[in-house]
Amino acid sequence: MSSTSSEAHIRVLIAKPGMDGHDRGAKVVARALRDAGMEVIYTGLRQTGEMIVNAALQEDVDAIGLSVLSGAHMHYFREVVGLLRERGAEDIIVFGGGIIPDQDLPKLEELGVGRVFTPGASTEDAVTYLQGAVRARREKLGLH
């Protein structure tokens, strides 16, 4: 990486998996990340896990954010994390948000999901989380 700042050029893919058609929250988060200086790739609605992972690998992202309001969060997070592992890209940070019951949060963490933002979380929390998580990822990979 040519930059001396570990926070420069943070690349984040924001995706809406499945048939959920409500994308306002995803767009708000994408805008907040962009306003914080991150490069954001928004894939749009009705993405499959395969489409999300393919786009993430093609775009060489640091993180993937999933917005899930449909109740199928366990399926989609499990699918994306599994596909990343299959492709040797488990270092890509997976985070998300949506209507996700508190009792599922520890299960998502066990799957390898870095952080889940539920209703009421601030966009500043997402920015701060990603800055720290990406910094740690890059240090671990030797990409200062």
For the structure shown, list the relevant keywords.
about 140 residues; alpha/beta; Rossmann fold; 5-stranded parallel sheet; 5 helices; about 45% helix; globular; disordered N terminus
- Structural category is alpha/beta
General form? globular
Mean pLDDT: 92
CATH topology: Rossmann fold
**Annotated CATH homologous superfamily:** Cobalamin-binding domain
| Gross CATH architecture | 3-Layer(aba) Sandwich
Distance between the termini: 7 Å
Query: Can you count the beta strands?
Result: 5
Number of domains: 1
In percent, how helical is the residue content? 40-55%
Largest sheet: 5 strands, parallel
Given as residue ranges, the uncertain stretches (5+ residues, pLDDT < 50) are 1-7
Keywords: Cobalamin, Cobalt, Isomerase, Metal-binding
Protein name: Methylmalonyl-CoA mutase domain protein
Pfam families: B12-binding (PF02310)
InterPro entries: Acid_CoA_mut_C, Cobalamin-bd, Cobalamin-bd_sf
